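Progress against Task 2.4 (sequence-to-structure conversion) is shown through the following example record, which the project officer requested during the mid-term review.
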Amino acid sequence: MPSFKTLDDLGDIAGKRVLVREDLNVPMADGQVTDDTRLRAAVPTVAELADKGAIVLVLAHFGRPKVPAPEYSTALVTRPFQEVLGRPVRFVDWEGDAEAVATLQPGDVAVLENTRFFGGEEKNDPAVVQRFAALGDIYVNDAFSAAHRAHASTEGLAHVLPAYAGRAMEAELRALEKALGNPERPVAAVVGGAKVSTKLDVLKHLVARVDHLIIGGGMANTFLAARGVGVGKSLCEHDLAGTAEEILEAAERANCTVHLPYDVVVAKEFAPNPSSMRICNVHEVAADEMILDIGPAAVEALADALKTCRTLVWNGPLGAFETPPFDAATVALARTAAALTQEGSLVSVAGGGDTVAALNQAGVADDFTFVSTAGGAFLEWMEGKDLPGVAALTL
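Structure tokens generated for the chain above:
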């Protein structure tokens, strides 16, 4: 694993100004945070630095503003973050920021205004990097979920200030190393979701790295169709049949077993508990039916496969999990993976928004070895890409 400095490598930081890149980009409705997972993930690093007497300056983006606007201000998340952190948090606007920072005392915490209010943040403009750097003595990146972007606050600062990984970043990188960097074999990967086109690079990368590739969601339909199976009205990218076939052939060459469902849950309409729902063999899907989940026999076979594995990487649901009862396969397999993890026979790492939601729905998110809240960064890591924010931290 590439080595990087962590908070353990910091010397005496009392009175030092530490710029900490966190991900505070949380969903909000009617002024309230609807999911504070990312805020809670930031607490260990910010609290530890403040306890050591640092002046903690939190850098974060919020939304995708084209121009600065109040609805994109990080002021909106300052109070919710304060409540989660359990200590006072100040908000510092970019107007007069240097003067405001100068009034902060050791142990104080402040959230700086949205980094994306500078047009040069996303271009990694050296002038913006210097603007941020002028406020701090040390840089800590604790936002893995933004590490796939080479922005001023995620990558540029690591080149101009002493750079360290925060506790959340450190935990993420260690978990990912266990999952695909240097995993215990056999390794299984669950890749689900609607479209093959969004995860082509992931699938191509994984077949050479894992022993079992479990394909679910709408993606499985594309692979079934490529194998000549009629999928009726199911979500399916028929134009990618050739690509799906190439991936299957590459898996065969790499001795990777690809698991496609052989029984499925179908219905004539996509709605909760439709009267037309039935379970059938994958070769018996009628022209007016759509596949909405993997069937119970296939789930049992997948559970048996997981019991032979030592490592699991999971991204994406197996069926249309937002609409019951088409969450059954995802929930059942997630519970199997959680039980194997809890008994110590499986290292399980999951990531991506839909995946986290599905694991929460199954009530097992806390039972996996590690659950990443990152979406794009987790996917790019699964594709085998170097993440700029991580690469900038490596020694």
